[in-house]
């Protein structure tokens, strides 16, 4: 295999994916009296489709300008939040 050959990984071959695929529904059903928060179940279920191309993927390019620096959004930090008003009695200017 040469250095330029792409070898896609199989996300379904990992132990965590296999464990979730086999046991997630049974685990969540067993916890019916005290279920985990909804975001936990959602995160575990979303792990099962992460990286699996069968679930879809997207790649966007805009022709020859896709790699031009001006075609990418600027990498700038957001402006700092405004300073809060002073607290306490105000002093007259000197």
Protein model, in words:
- It contains two helices and no strands.
- With 94 residues, it is mostly helical.
- Helix 1 runs antiparallel to helix 2.
- The longest helix is centred in the N-terminal third of the chain and has 16 residues.
Summarize it.
With 94 residues, the protein is an all-alpha fold. Helix content is 30%, strand content 0%.
Task: Please outline the helices and strands.
Layout: H1 15-30, H2 38-49
Spell out the key features of this protein:
flat, single chain, 94 residues, mainly alpha
Per the principal axes of the C-alpha atoms, what is the gross shape? flat
Structural class: mainly alpha
Order of helices and strands: HH
Estimated share of beta-strand residues: under 5%
- Average of pLDDT: 77
> Largest sheet, described in full?
none
